[in-house]
Amino acid sequence: MKGIEPYWEPDVDEFNERGVSARRDKSWEDVYVEFVLLMEKLNRIYRQLPEDLFEMKIWKDHDETAVKFLEGEITHWEGEHIPLLEKTLKR
Questions:
Q1: pLDDT, mean of residues 45-56
Q2: Which of 22, 51, 64, 88 is deepest in the core (most CB within 10 A)?
Q3: What is the separation of C-alpha 69 from the centre of its chain, rounded to a whole number of angstroms?
């Protein structure tokens, strides 16, 4: 939206490990509150996105558009994270 290419995280596993490490001492409730706030922020940003940017490539060397990226994240959460969270909660 600002006309600049956003940062591309080159190593998602490393990024995730840094995130886990930074939250290791937090309670589940604190992590969950942070997650909810970040999802609300993401939702606000997507709602403000002009329609002409929906299908524009986000990164020059990757095929993701705003729509493809969001669809990919939803699929990833549905297929990996939600089942793992549900399994963990059943323990």
A1: 91
A2: 64
A3: 9
